[in-house]
């Protein structure tokens, strides 16, 4: 976008080039046509000559026949033969002359098309150039900015600043928020739209473009040229989701581009400094804008999948859609991401609207079908292509860092997929919750010092501890709870030469309640057996994780073992056993002061330490029906590529993220933890 | 005729070069618009005409040879 008046010298140079082309090609074509007609004239001259010869032969024959009528002994065969020869020559020549005429006529058709096109285009060029010149002249004649312009009377104006802007009336936007540009974790620009709460978000591309001054342009992007510095994952998590775009924004931007192309000056600048022609410019702009809007309305009927395919094909043809504001901004700014500070936004009717969050980890704005359709038919190259295509849509924000990582996020979760041919790294970060419904059956030992009585509504205990050593058996409990956490994990898939896929990863979860859990997982190579068409682990996997609690000073260790996933019918089953040891140190003040006329005064305090050993057995299933049909079909095929295995693994990861409920069955409850609990209580009884 | 074709090609090429040079130094919406709406269509129209110009002379020459032999 231009940020200054167009260069008149360039206009004049273009004008001269077009005029010269018009004139010179006209002369060349005229000479060409004349040469063709000269040749045709030669042919016709020959034809006329042959016509005359034929006529002479005919006359000679007729004369002979006339004499023969008086004297039958006269022969006219010679004259007849001469006439036939002359006639043949004439007819042959006539046919060739006709061919020449047809060939010239065919050429004339093309020439006529060219002349017409040239005439139209040159006329449009003159009109456009004159319009731009006139606009510039008028612009230059108004030296003082027009404060009464329509731009200051309520049309959207955006301001760009280098840092955060305070007092942003977030409630003025649908769902509030502003556009913030972040690079390297640092905010470098912010776009603050103005408008009522019911208006769509509007951005003035010129104002935004001013903020891009001095930043280098990059060549039209393809996979290898998009380079964006990596940002902090936790910053992304903290900032929430990323939703950018909006058809309304694109309309305005496109209309501005067309307007500027026609008038030579950006709309913003023109209206700020225009004089008597201001209304004309506004009218012209509105016509352009409304025309685009009408076009868009027709296009909005297209299927989302079809659009993704169309965009994907454009990417394949190395023809990027430059109209997308986010893409241009990312390219120009080399930012990490564009945050819309309202986390969950969806695109409806071309407007960005907030979505009331619901569900613990339900992914706003993303349907499983759309996600699976992206991961479907995946190859390493299609990873990037499809992710770029998804990025090109106005539903998701995709960025790319220097390691060829593709990131997509949708408001609640973010997944980065990086590949270099040997290793694929999938990094997942999201804020969400898991709800669990557990049935626990177990037993254990409790050791207590002192006297204690405990009863809880959550547990049905077979016994009440009164003695130093007691046991609780046959405990059953049922509980449901949901916990929320920011979670980050990274899984690396290494592709070995024999096609096996080896997975190693680690993860960290930070809970708002103040706990931190981390883990490291190592999984043996995955491979696909063509014999029984199951996924196999070559050796059992080992997961090692550790956890630490902040609020309760809880520490512990965890070791897990996963079984070989097996396929039974259309379901994949995998079991895992996790054994954990936990030590909890803490103190609590319990009890109180009891005053009794008989017993006197009683006060108590309680300190406790807990050492527990627990474990759980998990049984996870994944139904093939829940996989996209193409993936399920591939599982039935005899051959499978490592990418297929990874695709399914990634699918499961994402599926887990997007599923609001995580089911697990714990056969050994945390009551076992209490088997090692030691409660220390002291009482002082004053008699 | 062949000279005319040569001239036409040369003029088209010159126009292309000039327009591309202008475009290269004109990185804004005005340049984009003119290039997209005027220059490129002109080049394409000229490119479409050139094959027809090339095809005609051989045809006419062949016809001439045949006519001369009659």
First-last Cα distance of chain B: 24 Å
Number of helices of chain B: 2
Most extensive chain interface and residues per partner: A-B, 59 and 45 residues
**What's the helix-strand series of chain B?**
HH
Q: Count the strands of chain B?
A: 0
Spans of chain A with pLDDT under 50 lasting ≥5 residues? 144-247, 301-413, 431-484, 495-501, 512-556, 584-611, 626-687
Total separate domains of chain A: 3
Strand content of chain A: 25-35%
How does the overall form of chain A come out from the CA principal axes?
A: elongated
Q: If you average the pLDDT of chain A, what whole number results?
A: 51
Helix fraction bin of chain A? 25-40%
Residues in β-strands, percent of chain B: under 5%
| Main sheet makeup of chain B | none
| Classification by helices and strands of chain A | alpha+beta
Mean pLDDT value of chain B:
85
| Helix share bin of chain B | over 70%
Shape, principal axes of CA atoms of chain B:
rod-shaped
* E-strand count of chain A: 21
What's the main sheet of chain A like? 9 strands, mixed, barrel
Read across the widest sheet of chain A, the strand sequence of neighbours is 10-11-12-13-15-16-18-20-21
Give structural notes.
The complex is a heterodimer of chains A (687) and B (70). Chain A has 13 helices and 21 strands. Chain A is of the alpha+beta class and 687 residues long. Chain A has three domains: 134 residues; 249 residues, no CATH class; 240 residues, no CATH class. Chain A has a nine-stranded mixed barrel with strand order 10-11-12-13-15-16-18-20-21. A four-stranded antiparallel beta sheet of chain A has the order 1-3-2-4, with helices on one face. In chain A, strand 7 and strand 8 form a beta hairpin. The longest helix of chain A is centred in the first third of the chain and has 65 residues. The radius of gyration of chain A is 41 Å and the shape is elongated. The relative contact order of chain A is 0.08. Chain B has one domain. In chain B, helix 1 runs antiparallel to helix 2. At the A-B interface, helix 1, helix 2 and helix 5 of A face helix 1 and helix 2 of B.
């Amino acid at each position: 976008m231009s940020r200054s008046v167009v260069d008149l010298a360039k206009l004049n140079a273009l004008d001269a080039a077009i005029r010269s082309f018009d004139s010179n090609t006209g002369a060349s074509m005229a000479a060409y046509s004349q040469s063709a007609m000269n040749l045709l004239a030669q042919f016709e001259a020959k034809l006329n000559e042959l016509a005359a010869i034929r006529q002479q032969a005919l006359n000679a024959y007729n004369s002979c026949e006339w004499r023969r009528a008086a004297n039958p002994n006269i022969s006219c065969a010679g004259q007849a033969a001469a006439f036939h020869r002359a006639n043949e020559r004439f007819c042959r020549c006539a046919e060739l002359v006709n061919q020449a005429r047809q060939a010239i006529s065919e050429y004339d058709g093309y020439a006529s098309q060219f002349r017409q096109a040239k005439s139209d285009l040159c006329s449009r060029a003159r009109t456009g150039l004159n319009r731009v010149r006139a606009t510039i002249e008028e612009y230059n004649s108004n030296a003082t900015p027009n404060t009464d312009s329509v731009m200051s009377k309520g049309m959207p104006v955006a301001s760009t600043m280098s840092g955060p802007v305070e007092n942003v009336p977030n409630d003025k936007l649908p769902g509030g928020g502003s556009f913030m540009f972040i690079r390297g974790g640092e905010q470098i620009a912010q776009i603050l739209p103005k408008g009522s709460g019911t208006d769509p978000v509007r951005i003035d591309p010129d104002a935004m473009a001013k903020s891009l001054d001095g930043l280098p342009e990059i060549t039209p992007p393809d996979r290898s040229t998009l380079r964006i510095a990596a940002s902090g994952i936790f910053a992304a998590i903290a900032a929430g989701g990323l939703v950018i775009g909006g058809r309304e924004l694109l309309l305005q931007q496109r209309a501005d581009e067309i307007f500027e192309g026609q008038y030579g000056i950006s709309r913003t600048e023109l209206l700020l400094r225009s004089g008597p022609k201001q209304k004309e410019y506004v009218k012209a702009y509105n016509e352009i804008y409304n025309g685009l809007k009408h076009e868009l309305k027709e296009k909005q009927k297209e299927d989302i999948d079809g659009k993704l395919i169309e965009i994907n094909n454009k990417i394949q043809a190395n023809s990027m859609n430059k109209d997308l504001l986010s893409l241009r901004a990312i390219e120009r700014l080399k930012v990490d991401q564009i945050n819309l500070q309202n986390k969950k936004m969806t695109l409806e009717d071309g407007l960005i609207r907030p979505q009331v969050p619901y569900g613990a980890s339900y992914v706003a704005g993303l349907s499983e079908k759309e996600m699976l359709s992206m991961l479907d038919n995946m190859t390493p190259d299609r990873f990037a292509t499809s992710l770029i295509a998804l990025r090109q849509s106005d539903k998701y924000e995709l960025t790319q860092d220097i390691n060829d990582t593709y990131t997509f996020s949708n408001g609640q979760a973010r997944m980065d997929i990086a590949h270099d041919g040997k290793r694929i790294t999938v990094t997942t970060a999201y804020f969400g919750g898991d709800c669990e419904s557990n049935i626990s059956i177990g037993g254990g030992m409790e050791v207590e010092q002192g006297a204690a009585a405990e009863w809880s509504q959550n547990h049905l205990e077979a016994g009440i501890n009164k003695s130093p050593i007691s046991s609780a058996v046959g405990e059953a409990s049922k509980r449901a709870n949901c916990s929320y956490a920011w979670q980050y994990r990274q899984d690396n898939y290494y592709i070995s030469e024999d096609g096996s896929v080896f997975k190693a990863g680690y993860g960290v979860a930070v809970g708002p309640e103040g706990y931190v859990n981390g883990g490291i997982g190592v999984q043996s190579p995955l491979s696909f057996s063509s014999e029984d068409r199951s996924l196999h682990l070559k050796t059992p996997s080992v997961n090692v994780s550790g956890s630490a609690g902040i609020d309760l000073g809880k520490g512990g260790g965890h070791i897990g073992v996963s079984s070989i996933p097996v396929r039974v019918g259309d379901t994949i089953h995998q079991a895992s056993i996790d054994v954990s040891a936990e030590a909890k140190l803490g103190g609590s003040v319990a009890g109180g002061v009891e005053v009794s006329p008989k017993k006197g005064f009683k006060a108590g305090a309680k300190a406790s330490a807990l050492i527990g050993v627990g474990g759980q057995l998990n049984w996870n299933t994944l139904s093939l029906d829940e996989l996209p049909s193409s993936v399920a079909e591939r599982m039935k095929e005899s051959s499978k590529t490592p990418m297929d295995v990874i695709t399914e693994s990634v699918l499961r990861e994402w599926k887990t993220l997007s599923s609001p409920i995580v089911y697990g069955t714990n056969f050994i409850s945390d009551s076992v933890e209490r088997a090692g609990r030691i409660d220390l209580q002291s009482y002082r009884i004053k008699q | 005729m062949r000279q005319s074709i040569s001239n036409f090609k040369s003029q088209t090429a010159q126009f292309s070069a000039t327009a591309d040079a202008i475009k290269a130094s004109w990185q804004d919406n005005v340049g984009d618009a003119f290039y997209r709406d005027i220059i490129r269509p002109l080049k394409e129209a000229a490119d479409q005409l050139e094959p027809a110009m090339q095809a005609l002379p051989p045809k006419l020459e062949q016809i001439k040879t045949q006519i001369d032999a009659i």
